Amino acid sequence: MKKLSDFSRIPFGITPTPLYKLENISREVGKNIYIKRDDMIGVALGGNKTRKLEYLLADARDKGADVVLTAGGPQSNHAMLTAACASRIGMKAILVLKKRGELTGGNLILDNIYNAEVRFVDTDSYDDVYAEMEAIMATLRKAGHTPYFIPVGGSVPLGSLGYIACTEEIAAQSKALGVRFDAVVSATGSGGTYAGLTYGTKLNLPGARSVGIGVCDDPFADIALDLMKGIKDLLESDVPVEKEDIHIRYCIGDGYAIPSPEGCAAVRRLARSEGILVDPVYTGKALAGMFQLIEEGYFMGEENILFVHTGGAGALFAVDLLPEA
Ligand SMILES: *Cc1c(COP(=O)(O)O)cnc(C)c1O
Asked: Is 75's C-beta closer than 6 angstroms to any atom of ligand 1?
């Protein structure tokens, strides 16, 4: 089996990110709730895409790329972090964004600060976005450039290696704290983070289950299985990928990136009890999903739960929370 150090990586993040117990929330819900602060990873406003980009942009650089293209919604954290990381290594970023939702503020301000070229495609389908990206790449190649393509969310097996790395950090931190985690909970939007965390949990956190909270209605069980098989192949690992490893719940509300009452309540709850910001698109809904599962008794007998904070605070400045109930 290969080691992570066998893969090219650019250390954009400041790691290990902090991991500690949420004392107030734990008291309130009657479980030991810990948090892994990937929102504090040190690039822009933080977030999970940083870990994926450490491997993806290293691959881009190894392949001689001088421009990176990626896609997302207008407030994409992934696109913004691609711009941030690319600018740090002197690579141009072109962000092709699906024109729907909030078209000013938030991450679009940051895209601009990081000097990314932003292009909007007026569509509801990523097929149209990818077609536009193909056209841009053909033009770039003709002009002598070497473009590197990253799909939505950076959710390819190579990007997911970043979350194998995260589970190695969690294993070391868990040992140092003397706590064995029973469950690892994360937000799922394109599947790559969950796939990495789930396969990594199997490798590095024996006895824990990885629970993904879907924030849009894509079939994440299948998506995660495919990505995990890809990770296994990359690592040349003998550890099997099994359906039983996958635990997906959904907490979407009215739709992707539409604030939900539960999600907004979770944003306010974590802010007021622990001082930590989650967002209404990903991490607030994931946290709300975790609270629901605790109430349902889903974690019966499982006492130590780790919430992986994947970032997203930029959305707070573009997407209004629902009024307080
Ligand atoms: C992209 C994103 C996620 C989901 O990660 P995926 O790998 O796309 O499933 C979760 N939280 C935040 C803040 C994100 O930006």
From this structure: no
Spatial distance between the Cα atoms of 191 and 54, rounded to a whole number of angstroms: 17
Q: Tell how far the Cα of 118 is from the centroid of ligand 1, in angstroms.
A: 20
Query: Which tens digit of pLDDT belongs to each residue from 92-125?
Result: 999 999 987 678 899 999 999 999 999 999 999 9
Q: What is the tens place of the pLDDT at every residue in 22-77?
A: 999 999 999 999 999 999 999 999 999 999 999 999 999 999 999 999 999 999 99
What lies within 8 Å, CB to CB, of 177 at 6+ separation is 19
Structural tokens at position 278: 């989650």
Known catalytic residues are 76
**Confidence (pLDDT) at 247:** 98
Give the integer Cα–Cα distance in Å for 25 and 43.
27
Q: Is the CB of 72 under 6 A from ligand 1?
A: no
Q: Calculate the alpha carbon distances from 23 to 107, 165, 221, 223, 270 in Å.
A: 31, 26, 32, 34, 11
